[in-house]
């Protein structure tokens, strides 16, 4: 037994949170089974194809576990999950937890080089993807069929999430009678439950190790501040495996209380509005651009949206102007959510006054969240003064997965996570005023400029590049790349061709620069460093 858990907590601090009762020994598998037992005939999950009760979902999970076990998935094995929003996604993750395996979450938008990196770094032995890939995912799956740099080739298991029986056929071995999984083999509460993704500030996304204990506490705390109940209906419109969608209070919150989960293909009004009306949706989570699209959608009044009680908006900063429109124009409660896959989640309370709701990013959801706002020398600043947000608590990781160098700069000696956000902390509320980390927030999708720069630099006609975020009315930020061509390049560089090149190198689709400008030189700061600030205007 090691002295440090997968999430970086010492045995001693784990014991502390256990004694406080915030870590209560629950696991994702127990959570699921409790609801199946309590509400077998209630509606559990709906997508464009299927509609399942909890008992039916449980049967689907058992079936999925059988197939996965037959393909070598067992306790402790790490498995990349890259599936579209669907009931099959739920079956997959709970089947993995039933087997004690560890999901490694990827978004459908992640590209081949991201997914190969996840497979190397986790390391993952299996990949579960869709058997209905678009062009982008076809590429991901083809690239994963080539051996990784360490010589391994992960086993691909493709699921047809658009079929009545997603587990019927696919490129996998079918089970025989003698390989039915025996009793479930879920892990312990302080085991690694999954690896979640961070937008990351360096080259490639970092992997975030969360345990059952720490994550499920965050789900319970979310439910308390969001008042989610058994007869509620949650619309999942953002990618299912995003931390916001999973846990704030998200899919797992719905499982915890036994609410119904409805999957949408996308957060666009044309997908979301009919589903709200048809399924009497009570709650949904959106990133700011999706909320703005909904507010500005001309045909909104055609749909009956009265069933919605609350919309959660987070992932990137919501403008006060848009926030103010929610109640009068949609008639919904707004809860701003400022969260991070590393842990800390803040909500504006449902009962807060309107000014707090529209102009802050909320309050830490747990009384055990510790907040420090410091200057660049780690000295605390007076309340109300902007500073760097550091945080520690029962559900904020104390280390990234297998990344000692990143850990050294991302955490303080006493275990506080350096969020990279610049905030004002006043009367218990946090307002996000900026960002210290080198990261672009494109409507909630986090992009590491360095990763995009590294890809552009491999182009034979590129001399140098600099990637920054530029303000955008809808997304908050877009990406702009300044590219200096090589002097001896044979043909002139074209922005469209460079975009295509980036796409082909396997970066996530949201990381392809929105704007590429070919320039002769970059703007420089007084001391001769490339000025990213001057570029961003
Ligand atoms: P990640 O670490 O990739 O999960 O991304 C979390 C980051 O997203 C936070 O550290 C913030 O920079 C940003 N973020 C999330 N929610 C909000 C919000 N409501 N307002 C402003 N920024 C946000
Ligand atoms: O952006 C995020 O990562 C995020 C936003 C809202 C998050 O992880 C969360 C809520 O839990």
From TrEMBL:
Residues 32-401 form the AMP-dependent synthetase/ligase domain. It is an enzyme of class 6 (ligase). Transmembrane segments: none annotated. SUPFAM superfamilies: Acetyl-CoA synthetase-like. The gene is dhbE. It comes from the Bacteria. It holds the Pfam family AMP-binding. Keywords: Ligase. One of its GO terms (molecular function) is acid-thiol ligase activity. Its EC number is 6.3.2.-. InterPro entries: AMP-bd_C, AMP-bd_C_sf, AMP-binding_CS, AMP-dep_synth/lig_dom, ANL_N_sf, ATP-dep_AMP-bd_enzyme. This is 2,3-dihydroxybenzoate-AMP ligase. The keyword Repeat does not apply. It comes from Corynebacterium glyciniphilum AJ 3170. Residues 452-529 form the AMP-binding enzyme C-terminal domain. The keyword Mitochondrion does not apply.
């Amino acid at each position: 037994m090691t002295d440090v858990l997968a999430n970086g907590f010492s045995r001693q601090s784990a014991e502390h949170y256990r004694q406080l009762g915030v870590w209560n020994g629950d696991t994702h598998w127990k959570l699921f089974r409790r609801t199946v037992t309590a509400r077998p005939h209630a509606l559990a999950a709906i997508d464009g194809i299927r509609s399942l009760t909890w008992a039916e979902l449980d049967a689907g999970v058992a079936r999925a576990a059988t197939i996965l076990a037959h393909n070598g998935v067992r306790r402790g094995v790490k498995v990349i999950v890259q599936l579209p929003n669907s009931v099959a996604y739920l079956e997959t993750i709970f089947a993995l937890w039933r087997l004690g395996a560890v999901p490694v979450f990827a978004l459908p938008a992640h590209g081949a080089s991201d997914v190969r990196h996840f497979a190397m770094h986790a390391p993952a032995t299996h990949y579960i993807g869709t058997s209905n890939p678009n062009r982008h995912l076809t590429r991901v799956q083809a690239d994963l069929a080539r051996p990784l740099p360490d010589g391994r080739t992960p086993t691909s298991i493709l699921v047809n999430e658009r079929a009545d029986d997603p587990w019927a056929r696919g490129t996998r071995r079918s089970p025989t009678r003698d390989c039915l999984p025996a009793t479930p083999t879920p892990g312990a509460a302080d085991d690694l439950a999954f690896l979640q993704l961070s937008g990351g500030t360096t080259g490639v996304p970092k992997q975030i190790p969360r345990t059952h204990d720490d994550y499920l506490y965050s789900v319970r705390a979310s439910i308390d501040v969001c008042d989610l109940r058994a007869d509620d209906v949650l619309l999942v419109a953002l990618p299912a495996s995003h931390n916001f969608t999973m846990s704030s209070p998200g899919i797992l919150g719905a499982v915890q209380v036994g609410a119904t989960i409805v999957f949408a293909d996308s957060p666009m009004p044309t997908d979301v509005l009919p589903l709200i009306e048809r399924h009497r949706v009570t709650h949904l989570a959106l990133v700011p651009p999706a909320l703005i699209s909904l507010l500005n959608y001309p045909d909104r009044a055609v749909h009956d949206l009265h069933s919605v009680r609350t919309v959660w908006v987070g992932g990137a900063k919501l403008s006060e102007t848009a926030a103010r429109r929610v109640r009068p124009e949609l008639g919904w409660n707004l809860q701003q959510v400022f969260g991070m896959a590393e842990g800390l989640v803040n909500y504006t309370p449902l009962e807060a006054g309107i000014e707090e709701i529209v102009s802050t990013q909320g309050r830490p959801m747990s009384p055990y969240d510790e907040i420090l706002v410091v200057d660049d020398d780690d000295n605390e600043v007076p309340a109300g003064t902007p500073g760097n947000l550091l945080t520690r608590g029962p559900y904020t990781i104390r280390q990234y997965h297998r990344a000692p160098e990143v850990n050294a700069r991302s955490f303080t000696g006493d275990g506080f996570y350096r969020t990279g956000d610049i905030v004002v902390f006043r009367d218990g509320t946090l307002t996000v005023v900026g960002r210290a980390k080198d990261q672009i927030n494109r409507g909630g999708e986090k992009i590491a400029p360095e990763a995009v720069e590294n890809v552009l630099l491999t182009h034979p006609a590129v001399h140098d590049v600099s990637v920054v975020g530029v303000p955008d009315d809808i997304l908050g930020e877009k990406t702009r790349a300044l590219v200096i061509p090589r002097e001896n390049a044979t043909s002139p560089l074209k922005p469209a061709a460079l975009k295509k090149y980036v796409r082909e190198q396997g970066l996530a689709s949201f990381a392809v620069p929105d704007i590429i400008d070919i320039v002769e030189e970059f703007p420089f700061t007084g001391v001769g460093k490339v000025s990213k600030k001057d570029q961003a205007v």
